[in-house]
Amino acid sequence: MVVDREFNSVSRCRVRNISDRGTKLDIPNSFLVPTGFWLIAVSSGLAYDAQLAWRRYPNLGVSLGEPIFLDPPTSSIGRQLRTVWINASN
């Protein structure tokens, strides 16, 4: 899931081609992804600080920061991201 930094917008996406440097995302055509956002891997319970590297709709290339474990979260941002993750999982 793509979550803007202010937690105002959440959109589902598909993760493709994961590497140690980043990943490729498939996103809905109607969703404009900001240059910096949170990426939540719903199935693994991890979140990443993501930066847009390139955009060729319907795909995006993003670089990823260190993973944030959402179960259990260890920071205030982790707790906020966990709430989004839990709501998406239900």
Summary keywords:
90 residues; alpha+beta; 1 helix
DSSP strand content = 35-45%
Low-confidence runs of at least 5 consecutive residues? none
Separation of the first and last Cα atoms: 14 Å
* Topology pattern, helix = H, strand = E: EEEEEEEEH
The DSSP helix count reads 1
- Taking all residues together, what is the mean pLDDT? 91
Structural class comes to alpha+beta
How is this structure best described in words?
By secondary structure, the chain is α+β, with helices and mostly antiparallel strands. The chain has one domain: Thrombin, subunit H, CATH 2.40.10. It is 16% helix and 42% strand. It is built from 1 helix and 8 strands, in the order E-E-E-E-E-E-E-E-H. Strands 1, 2, 3, 4, 5, 6, 7 and 8 form an 8-stranded antiparallel β-sheet that branches. The longest helix is centred in the C-terminal third of the chain and has 14 residues, at 76-89. It is globular, with a radius of gyration of 12 Å. The two termini are 14 Å apart.
List the topology elements:
Elements: E1 2-4, E2 10-11, E3 14-16, E4 22-26, E5 36-41, E6 46-56, E7 59-64, E8 68-69, H1 76-89
Structure described in brief:
By secondary structure, this protein is of the alpha+beta class.
